[in-house]
Structures are given as C-alpha cells and as structure tokens.
Amino acid sequence: MATGLLILLLGKGTKLSQRIMGTDKEYAGTLRLGTSTDTQDADGRTTEERPYTSVNLPAIEARFEAHRGDQMQKPPMVSAIKKNGVPLYKLARKGVEVEREDRLIHVYRLQLLDFAPPDVRFDLKCTKGTYVRTLCHDIGEELGCGGHLAALRRTAIGNLHVDQATPLDTLLAGSLAELGEKVIPVYAFTPQ
C-alpha cells in the first residue's frame, strides 16, 4: 500500500542505517473517512462503517491543527514493536491485543491538500516513529465517523527527497556502471 522513497544502503553506507532511520520523514497521504479497519489502513478488515456526511472542512482543519506539535501516540497492534521478544503484528494475527505504551512524537506539518469526501488528502512532516495510520485513525475517531489510511507515499527521509530517487525498474534494468552513477556518497547525507 505504501509507495515512495526507499533508501538502499550499500557497503560502508550500511553503517548509516540507524542515523538515517532516526531522521524526520515526510509523506503524502489519504485519510478515508467513515470506515475503520483492524489495521488502521486499507490493508485491514473493515470493523465499522459510520456516516461522514456531517464532517466539513473547518472540522478537518481543526483536527489537523490539534495534531501539530508534540503529542503522545499509542502504537498500533499491527506494528514491528516487540512485546517480550514477539513482534506485535504476530500477536495481532492471533487475535491477541496487549497493552502498548504511548510514545512521544512530533508533527511539524500536517497540511490539508484536498477534501473530496470521503477522502482527505494531506501532506505530513513528522519525527521517526510516527504511525501515520494511527494518526488517521485517531482523527477519524475525533471527527466522530472513524477513518483509516487509504494511501501513503513517503516523499522524504531527512534531506533525501523522492525527486532525487531513481525508480527501481530503472536500477534493475541498468548495468553495474549505471548503478554506480546513481549511488549517493555517504557524505551527502546530513540528518535533520
């Protein structure tokens, strides 16, 4: 379901993994109002449908404003976070739900791009560890109609932007020399 920027680390660049993973991320996404799912995204099973016709632009903008800045977020059950060494998604698949501790996240930018009911397109810049699907779920609940993440595209990781990326099919079709020309040197990455 998710598309966009994926950074591949090669050779000595693999040492930057933690540094890159720890940087801020940017996304373009779609919140679909009126339908809640068990995974908080479009890949999940519908758990509830509610009317969304009373939701208006000012209400959405108010919820977006309320979610900017520091906040605590409860990670979803369908996540790679481990409880007693077991990823939560494995427990969720067995129908087991466990207590999860809220985590501090920061939303720098949450901007409405388009409202075409039931879809709300948005632009987001946030800290690592922010679950965009949980953000969509929470906003849907606050609006009283439920919601889930219908589409997500990662547009930036730190100072690396999707516009700088080479499509995967181009990389796979190219020669080793052509691949070498696409590699970004380690020193070009600066965390934010």
Brief digest:
This protein has 6 helices and 11 strands.
Describe the model.
By secondary structure, the protein is an alpha+beta fold. The chain has a single domain, classed as Pseudouridine synthase (2-Layer Sandwich), CATH 3.30.2350. It has 6 helices and 11 strands. The strands form 3 sheets. Strands 1, 2, 5, 8, 9, 10 and 11 form a 7-stranded mixed sheet that branches. It has a two-stranded antiparallel sheet with strand order 3-4. A two-stranded antiparallel sheet has the order 6-7. It is globular.
First-to-last CA distance: 27 Å
Please give the count of helices: 6
Identify low-pLDDT runs. none
Sketch the major β-sheet: 7 strands, mixed
What is the CATH homology-level superfamily?
Pseudouridine synthase
Shape: globular
Give me the secondary-structure category.
Answer: alpha+beta
Summarize the helices and strands and which ones pair or pack:
Elements lengths: L1 E3 L12 H5 L3 E9 L1 E3 L8 E4 L7 H10 L2 E5 L8 E2 L2 E2 H6 L9 E14 L2 E8 L5 H11 L4 E11 L2 E2 L6 H6 L2 H7 L10
Parallel strand pairs: 1-10
Antiparallel strand pairs: 2-9, 2-10, 3-4, 5-8, 6-7, 8-9, 10-11
